[in-house]
Amino acid sequence: MQTSRARRGSLGVAVAATGLLATLLTAGPAAASPDPGDLVPGAGAQQSAGAAGGEGRELAPGEIPGQDEIVHSRNIKHLANIPSTDPTRINSDLAFQGRYAYAGNYTGFTIYDIGNPKAPKTVTEVLCPGGQNDISVQGDLLFLSTDSSRSDDSCNSVSQPATEKSSWEGIKIFDIKDKKNPKYIKSVETACGSHTHTLVPGGRDIYLYVSSYSPSDAFPDCKPPHDGISIVKVPKKDPTRAAVVAFPVLFPDGGNPGAPTNPGVSKTTGCHDITVLPSENLAAGACMGDGILFDISKPEEPRVIDRVQDNVNFSFWHSATFNERVNKVVFTDELGGGGGATCNEATGPDRGADGIYEITGRGDQRKLVFKSYFKIPRHQADTENCVAHNGSLVPVGGGRDIMVQAWYQGGVSVWDFTDSTSPKEIAYFERGPLTTDKLGLGGSWSAYYYNGHIYSNDIVKGLDVLRLDDWRTDSAKWVRLDRLNTQTQPEYH
Fold first, then answer.
1. DSSP class of residue 159?
2. pLDDT over 70 (residue 446)
3. Which of 112, 206, 325, 427 lies at 20 to 30 Å from 222 by C-alpha?
């Protein structure tokens, strides 16, 4: 399955090569595509639909669980699993609305009924290939990101080199009023495709901030410089009129130059992911070699307030999360592009980790100030792809900062960063290595807290539902949302 553009290197070939880990750690992200591209999902026993796969057990210090073995902390319970119907596909991001969860994958998306978290049900599966199918929902509309060069914008397209002018990448829009029969109603082509997108709600219109990167003079629709984001405007009354309305330049100086100036660091050629906080007209961007804070009071004219770099330990700025008081941002570093075994002792605690930044000052004088790193304390096997990935706040309120986060084969981690200088893990769930003889691809792509439960979209295993029972997080169970697109961060309290 072709899951990344022709312009990116084949990570699958690199994984098969001897010494992959050493290559990733020395060459940095330029040697691999951020987010798993051509990697083949690892083999592993599938669980029966709805079954939690056993009670699991707690790990001993320094222990690595057996192949495919479920382990978790005492305050986590595995309630259910709906296995993938196609174990060769790559499952990606999640969105929620009402009693439904929407799960992207590289061949389309799945709608689940999670009205009973102990017994979730598959409502429908839509086939529409075009990795990575990053997903969001608003009302009766569902949006998908295509960052895989395709022959056309249809759901019957095939892979086609980005050097072909006729190739297509961008945003697909579906009408999901009938959950059993979603209808594809509109496409919008965007420069360099759409690796991810962020929904910015408005009055009459919805805006999508489209993140993409890796331009080349050889690509007719993705030439350098590519130093900003595409903004798509979607009229609510007529979404078929959706169109690109702006391409604001966020890095007029070109951003982080990357190697050789900064060895092991990605050159900034766009953004990977953006999180918006509409209630504060604020956004945080994870943009390859840079982290940015910007004002979105004028949705079509975002304005950068502050920009930071970490040219010592950060390889690829991947995603961002605000805390509830909006005085912190957690940025993730996707060292090795999601395909490397970077949660081992050799990599250490400060690389492939989260960076905690406090926001100081007010208005245009706000600054991002680094405080510390957080990385899961459980070492993973050298056959497990593992690095900081997608997560969300656990809305505990009361001035405490707790979030849940996916770490690929490192599993799901719940951690407390109330003390910005001393974050700590308070709960975890993971499976043992999918493979023990070679590096495989699997684990939790996204882990989000929604209406009292944790939902994880596992690349190979499908949808997992977890219950967290801990005095530090019990208050979050009272917070009920009507929808959650994690990159459109709500006011929880």
1. B
2. yes
3. 206
Say if pTM beats, i.e. exceeds, 0.90: yes
- 267-321 pLDDT, tens per residue? 999 999 999 999 999 999 999 999 999 999 999 999 999 999 999 999 999 999 9
Assigned token pair, 39: 């990697």
Residue (of 412, 407, 413, 408) closest to 425 by Cα position: 413
| Separation of alpha carbons 358 and 382, rounded Å | 33
In this model, does residue 376 exceed pLDDT 60? yes
Instruction: Please state, in angstroms and rounded to a whole number, the distance separating the CA atoms of residues 306 and 269.
Output: 18
- Six-digit token pair at 400? 């405490």
Q: Does 8 score more than 90 pLDDT?
A: no
Q: Which of 474, 468, 471 is nearest to 456 (CA)?
A: 468
Instruction: Tally Cβ neighbours within 10 Å of residue 279.
Output: 10
C-alpha 382, offset from chain centre: 23
Backbone angles phi, psi at 25, to 5 degrees: -75, -25
189 secondary structure, DSSP code: E
CB 32 within 8 A of CB 340: yes
Measured CA to CA, the distance from residue 115 to residue 97 in angstroms comes to 11
Written as one string, the DSSP assignment of 72-138 is E-TTEEEEEEE--S-TTS-EEEEEEETTEEEEEETTEEEEEE-SSTTS-EEEEEEE---TEEEEEEE
Question: What does each C-alpha distance from 213 to 14, 196, 224, 273, 287 come to in angstroms?
Answer: 21, 10, 10, 11, 9
- Sign (positive or negative) of CA dihedral 16, 17, 21, 27: negative
Cα dist from 195 to 12, 19, 170, 264, whole Å? 19, 28, 8, 22
Cα→Cα distances 343→365, 376, 379, Å = 36, 8, 6
Q: Give 319's strand partners.
A: 332
Joined tokens for residue 97: 């609305």
- Alpha-helix residue ranges (DSSP H) falling in 296-431: none
Looking at every residue in the chain, the average pLDDT score rounds to: 91
347 closest CA partner among 369, 372, 321, 373: 373
